[in-house]
């Protein structure tokens, strides 16, 4: 067992302040487990935290990233949920086990890994045993690391909160991590899936994964294209990953009494909607803040049953964080993962 490990830390906001350092490997305390981290999946949210565009008060020195997969290699006194050798993944909101999250109307519930809590970009982490779940048996560590944020977000929107049923239509915006999970989950539930993207190449890849229809949003009014494809019915459930003014277009596209899951803020965090469409269509517009541990455990079981395989565009070495972030800037088809040698 090594006495030191590599860990990515930053002492101030900004990518230039990210450094790979040597740190001591500690022993787990009561109720804690130590995990040998084998893979860390990056999310667009991690980029925002690092750059300071997400208003989170970080405690420096800070280690970014929320999603990991690894193996329990030591346990503290009183641990009952895991034994050494167990393959595990992290949870995004570690204190949110089920039901409603903590917080209230004034104090928003956002105590997350790689934000309020230290993140996963270290060769070893020590966490409370309740902050982990068992990894899927059918995925390797890189694939499993993509589930805690992107995978669970799509599952929580469509299944946990969305009650998706066979025969419904789903619109997936873009081809990033959440979008490709939503595509696969929706198809597994018997939905008809539409995908929008500004790239014909990525639309072709989405169709190869099972998308029924692809629309290039840069070639005309994509909402009008959806009207034509659905005979003016619209879409039952829209995965809104863009935010800002785009939500107006999603409201145009949604079916009467349909549902819009608001997930992304790529185009801005401020939104306004026309009252007439909102009142007369009367859709459910739900914000999705990832999800709780019980839903992640449900999702893990579903992954094994349906044979879902996360889409990973590239696997970088653990020391290639800056290259991985540059890839995230360009936009990935699916996920980007850092793996340990």
Describe the protein's topology.
Blueprint: E1 4-10, E2 18-24, E3 32-42, H1 44-51, E4 67-75, E5 87-90, E6 124-128, E7 132-134, H2 141-144, H3 147-160, E8 169-173, H4 177-188, E9 192-197, H5 200-208, E10 213-216, H6 222-229, E11 235-240, H7 246-253, E12 254-262, H8 275-281, E13 284-287, H9 293-306, E14 312-317, H10 321-330, E15 335-339
Parallel strand pairs: 8-9, 8-11, 9-10, 11-12, 12-13, 14-15
Antiparallel strand pairs: 1-2, 3-4, 3-6, 3-15, 4-5, 5-7
Helix pairs in contact: 3-4, 3-9, 6-7
Q: What is the CA-CA span between the terminal residues?
A: 16 Å
Decide which structural class fits the backbone: alpha/beta
Strand content: 25-35%
Instruction: Name the CATH class of the largest domain.
Output: Alpha Beta
Order of helices and strands: EEEHEEEEHHEHEHEHEHEHEHEHE
Name of the CATH homologous superfamily of the largest domain: Medium-chain alcohol dehydrogenases, catalytic domain
Task: Give structural notes.
This protein has 341 residues and is of the alpha/beta class. The protein folds into two domains: 4-147 and 291-339, Medium-chain alcohol dehydrogenases, catalytic domain (Quinone Oxidoreductase, Chain A, domain 1, Alpha-Beta Complex); 162-287, NAD(P)-binding Rossmann-like Domain (Rossmann fold), CATH 3.40.50.720. It is 28% helix and 27% strand. It contains ten helices and 15 strands. The chain has helices at residues 44-51, 141-144, 147-160, 177-188, 200-208, 222-229, 246-253, 275-281, 293-306, 321-330, and strands at 4-10, 18-24, 32-42, 67-75, 87-90, 124-128, 132-134, 169-173, 192-197, 213-216, 235-240, 254-262, 284-287, 312-317, 335-339. The strands form three sheets. Strands 3, 4, 5, 6, 7, 14 and 15 form a seven-stranded mixed beta sheet that branches. Helix 5 (200-208) links the parallel strand 9 (192-197) and strand 10.
